[in-house]
UniProtKB/TrEMBL annotation:
The active site is at D67, D136, H138, E143. Residues 11-225 form the Glucosamine/galactosamine-6-phosphate isomerase domain. InterPro entries: Glc/Gal-6P_isomerase, Glucosamine6P_isomerase, Glucosamine6P_isomerase_CS, NagB/RpiA_transferase-like. This is Glucosamine-6-phosphate deaminase. Belongs to the glucosamine/galactosamine-6-phosphate isomerase family. NagB subfamily. One of its GO terms (molecular function) is glucosamine-6-phosphate deaminase activity. It catalyses: alpha-D-glucosamine 6-phosphate + H2O = beta-D-fructose 6-phosphate + NH4(+). Pathway: Amino-sugar metabolism; N-acetylneuraminate degradation; D-fructose 6-phosphate from N-acetylneuraminate: step 5/5.
Length: 243
């Protein structure tokens, strides 16, 4: 695992945008796995600036979701599908037909999860998966004690994660869904390059456990220790508990 410490979130965004730009130069139709939440926003902003200036052409890239809420009404602005259309596809000039995600409104959720794993494989696998990390060490929505071999499946969000996400639902935890579909840890590990970005002091303990703690299901992000090409980008605050 490679750990890169950057001064701040904006520098982390630039660094990762540069890695994605390099990938797209080598492979314009690369499949990029994207995350939601606050952490990846500097990456998306930095990439959008490169696209706007003509330095990067992302128009042939393909995008896939890491996770999706279950049970939000179609078109809900906080569904991760809608969020990623706004934050990634539109600014990068990528057509919605190049966007893959699990169907959070499927009647048969288990079948939708299997179909998503199969679709990722059929698409040739994820070239670069961008990850955030939860304060409890989750990646995707694989909460502590998720199986390190898990595949895409439905999960129940912890109270802490629902509280963390209430800010996207008018600070009303009652509006935050209880369930999500998430790529499993095994699914995430199938990507050819994992890039985890962590910023802010609130992530420092989770980062220390991920990088320096034992490989343990209680810290799902520690599974990155198993991956042959994992890059952890942390700002100084998130690095503050590394030895
Ligand atoms: C979101 C996701 C989550 C977040 C994590 C951190 O698609 O998979 O694992 O990356 O909850 O969220 P932020 O970045 O908002 O602190």
């Amino acid at each position: 695992m490679e750990v890169v410490i950057v001064p701040d979130a904006a520098a982390g965004g630039e660094l990762i945008a540069g890695a994605i730009a390099g990938l797209l130069a080598r492979k314009p139709e690369a499949l990029l796995g994207v995350a939601t939440g606050s952490t990846p926003l500097p990456v998306y902003r930095a990439l959008a600036a490169r696209v706007a200036s003509g330095a990067v052409d992302a128009s042939r890239a393909r995008i896939c979701q890491l996770d999706e809420y279950v049970g939000l009404p179609a078109g809900h602005p906080e569904s991760y599908h809608a969020v990623l259309l706004r934050q990634v596809l539109e600014p990068l000039g990528i057509d919605e037909s190049s966007f893959m995600g699990p169907d959070g409104s499927a009647e048969d959720v288990a079948a939708a999860c299997r179909a998503y794993d199969a679709a990722l494989t059929a698409a040739g696998g994820v070239d670069l998966q961008l990850l955030g990390i939860g304060t409890d060490g989750h990646i995707g929505f694989n909460e502590p004690c998720s199986s390190l071999a898990s595949r895409t499946r439905i999960k129940t969000l912890t109270e802490q994660t629902r509280l963390d996400n209430a800010r996207f639902f008018g600070d009303d935890i009652e509006q935050v869904p209880h369930h999500v579909i998430t790529q499993g840890i095994g699914t995430i590990l199938d990507a050819r390059h994992l890039v985890l970005l962590a910023t802010g002091e609130g992530k420092a303990e989770a980062v220390a456990q991920t990088v320096e703690g034992p490989l343990a299901a209680v810290v799902p992000a520690s599974a990155l220790q198993l991956h042959p090409h994992a890059t952890v980008v942390v700002d100084e605050a998130a690095a503050s508990k590394l030895k």
